[in-house]
Write a structure and sequence with these properties.
By secondary structure, the protein is an all-beta fold. 0% of the residues lie in helices and 41% in strands. It is built from no helices and eleven strands. A hairpin with a 2-residue loop joins strand 10 and strand 11.
Length: 102
């Protein structure tokens, strides 16, 4: 899947349920992981991979995909095997960090 040139509309917010930190996705793609180059950096989560997951806009909706992480990426307790379409209030687990989509 490729990033769609269509405007994403309302940008979603990732709410870290562990810390209550809020991350508004200001571009059509955001990476999550321990590495400092990520858009959402998780330096304290030893179970998150350096480049763990990506949230992106494509085909008129927001998706999440695992980036071949060591511990997998989960949505609503389901282990992802392919990109997954996101809906409000979905829970994304990256390492031991859980995000809610708003």
């Amino acid at each position: 899947m490729t990033d769609s040139p269509a405007t994403p509309g309302r940008m979603p917010v990732l709410v870290n349920l562990n810390t209550q930190a809020r991350f508004t996705l200001n571009s059509p793609s955001a990476s999550l992981g321990r590495a400092p180059e990520n858009d959402v950096v998780l330096p304290e989560d030893g179970y998150a991979s350096a480049d763990h997951a990506r949230v992106y806009f494509d085909q008129g909706r927001w998706w999440v995909e695992d980036l071949m992480s060591s511990n997998g990426t989960f949505v609503n307790d389901k282990l992802l095997g392919e990109p997954w379409p996101l809906s409000p209030n979905d829970l994304i687990k990256v390492g031991r960090t859980i995000f809610r989509i708003e």
